[in-house]
Amino acid sequence: MRLLSLIRSPHRSTTHTPSHSFLLRHPMATTTAEPISPSNTKLGWIGTGVMGRSMCSHLLKAGYTVTIFTRTQSKADSLLSMGAHWANSPKSLASQSDVVFSIVGYPSDVRHVILDPSSGALSGLRPGGVLIDMTTSDPSLAVDIHSAASMAGCSSVDAPVSGGDRGARLAALSIFAGGDETLVNRFTPLLNHLGRVYYMGGPGKGQFCKLANQVTIASTMVGLCEGLIYAHKAGLDLTNYLNAISTGAAGSKSLDLYGNRILNRDFEAGFYVNHFVKDLGICLRECQNMGLALPGLALAQQLYLSLKAHGEGDLGTQALVLALERLSNVSLEPGNSDSLTQK
């Protein structure tokens, strides 16, 4: 038995017949909805990059039927081998889904895969359906998506995440949710397959929280890399140095995740420099809108932008150490001779 009647939007075609039984209750509905489960909820997933691939795999392992779209189909091969279905466009994907997740690169990508009138997910989503965008994007775009979804009889949540590739693999992400609180609470059991949900407020507030998170990470990464360069120049053993500070006040998640990667010259992306430059650029624009001066943020953005200028945008954020090494003409790479004890 269907959980709720199909709500038709006046501008939508009425010829489409749903292929499955679940349609999300509109937030204003008064009847109690059946808990979300694999038996009554079909999912769509757009974006299978470093983060999205691992995140989507957790939903497949939880037993959900998942339809996938990504620009490069080969990047979805591992998920397709797990039983995911393929769609040729976000619109086609949404027509087969009750809930559509997206985690793509840039705000322009979000706008295209969700709001494009001819191929976007919203154009294919049935009234009562839900959009959950997990991309770090503009708060104003999250509000636009919420408004467009509401006009179409659908709902949306902005739910960007923090925790990097490791958090995605371990289903240990922090998820910053913005939107209707009742809706977020209803979807928390589903999102718990990916990490821990924190409700931050109305539409766009999840994005604002993620941007504040990025401001914090940016300055923390500068401090981590500068500390390593200072310790190296002073002739300290860097492995011993990291172990020593990790349990004190200088300890941080960034140190835990990236300290040894930096020492091992492992700059593989858990989060791309290109995407971090994008995030910090959004932060700076929002600062201008708010009349805020955050000089630490501006400095970090310039340092990361220098990596991009050197063709290092596809490295991970820990590659910040390369920009700082160049400023002082030193290198943490084993075998160099620029520390004080070697002069």
UniProtKB/TrEMBL annotation:
Signal peptide: none
Domain 6-phosphogluconate dehydrogenase NADP-binding: 42-201
Protein name in the entry: 3-hydroxyisobutyrate dehydrogenase-like 1, mitochondrial
Pfam families tied to this protein: NAD_binding_11, NAD_binding_2
SUPFAM superfamilies for the chain: 6-phosphogluconate dehydrogenase C-terminal domain-like, NAD(P)-binding Rossmann-fold domains
Organism (species): Rehmannia glutinosa (Chinese foxglove)
Domain 3-hydroxyisobutyrate dehydrogenase-like NAD-binding: 204-322
Annotated Gene3D superfamilies: N-(1-d-carboxylethyl)-l-norvaline Dehydrogenase, domain 2 (1.10.1040.10), NAD(P)-binding Rossmann-like Domain (3.40.50.720)
Coiled-coil ranges per UniProt: none
Keywords of this entry: NAD, Oxidoreductase
